[in-house]
Design goal:
Tetracycline Repressor, domain 2, single chain, TetR family transcriptional regulator, 9 helices, mainly alpha
């Protein structure tokens, strides 16, 4: 706040352009993460395998970005984000930015954009499903086996496509 009409130091919004960015700075740490994972992988590892391993590692470490973290502060943060329209909209923008970054690393053509969209959507659905299970009363340790199975299934679907999934479900 100005003191006697003068500005004392930098304002908070110099570092956080919007109030949404101030609240979501933890998520901003993950900006471009999928693209980094693909860019930094070993050449013999496929992009999809690298992304799958990274998500599984996040589940193992209970990374909040996977939705599998039941610490009360993390749960309160997720509840705030998912129930505040302006925050949810900003998270959507982060996901779209991540999708674009991943597509660029994958080649930037229409196939790469489609692949990136699918990966980011899978990560979003898995994280939200994990969070919903925690909200329903399960602990992260209780949810973990199902979260791993869901992640393995989701990345297998990305690998094999919908045809195999619909055949298996028939």
């Amino acid at each position: 706040m100005p003191v006697n009409g003068s500005r004392q130091g930098a304002t908070l919004f110099r570092y956080f352009p919007t109030k949404e960015d101030l609240i979501l700075h933890r998520i901003a740490d993950h900006q471009g993460e999928a693209a980094r994972v693909v860019r930094d992988r070993q050449p013999e590892i496929s992009p999809l395998t690298a992304l799958h391993r990274h998500f599984r590692s996040g589940l193992d470490s209970r990374d909040p970005v996977t939705g599998l973290n039941d610490h009360p502060v993390v749960m309160a943060f997720h509840r705030l984000v998912f129930t505040t329209p302006s925050l949810a909209a900003r998270v959507t923008q982060y996901m779209l930015d991540n999708e674009e970054s991943l597509a660029e690393v994958l080649r930037g053509d229409i196939t790469a954009r489609l692949q990136a969209a699918q990966v980011i959507a899978v990560q979003r659905v898995l994280a939200r499903t994990n969070w919903q299970r925690l909200v329903a009363g399960q602990t992260a340790d209780e949810v973990y086996p199902e979260a791993v199975a869901d992640a393995d299934r989701a990345f297998a679907l990305l690998q094999t496509g919908f045809r195999d999934a619909t055949d298996a479900d028939s």
